[in-house]
Amino acid sequence: MRKSTTPESADPAPGAAEAAASTDAFDATEPAQRPVMGRRVERKEDLRLLTGHGRYVSDLQLPRMRHVAFLRSPYGHAGIDGIDASQARRLPGVHAVFTGDMPAFKACPLRARSALPSYVETEQPVMAWEKVRFAGETLAAVVAEDRYRAEDGIERIDVKYAPLPATVTAWSEPEVPVHDAAPDNVLLQRTFDTGDVPQQIEAAHLVVERELITNRHAGNPMECRAGVALWDAADDKLTFWSGTQIPHLARNMIAELLGLPEGNVRVIAPDVGGGFGTKAVLYPEDVALCLIAREMRGFPVKWVEDRTEHLLAATHAREHRYLVKAGFAADGRLLALQADVTCNVGAYSVYPWTAGIEPLMAGGLLSGPYRLQHYLCTVRGVTTNTSPSGPYRGVARPASVFAMESLLDGAARELGISPLEIRRLNLIQPADIPYRMPSRLVDDSGYYGECLEKAIEAIDYDAFRAEQEHRRQTGGNPIGLGLACYNELTGLGRAAAAGPRMPFRTGHDACTVRINPDGRVTVLSGVTAQGQGLETTMAQVVADAVGVSYDAVEVRLGDTNESLWGFGAFSSRQAVIGGGAAHRSGTAVRDKALLLAAKLFEVPQEELWLADGQIRRAGKPEPLASLAEIARVAYLESNRLPDGIEPGLEATRFYDPIRGAFAAGAQAATLEIDRATGELRVLQWVCVEDAGRVINPMIVDGQIAGSIAQGLGGTLYEHLIYDDAGNLSTGTLMDYLMPTTAEIPELTIGHVSHAADNPIGVRGVGEGGTLGPNACVAGAISDALGITITQLPITPGRVWEALR
Question: What is the dihedral of CA 252, 253, 257, 259, to 10 degrees?
Answer without folding.
Answer: 0
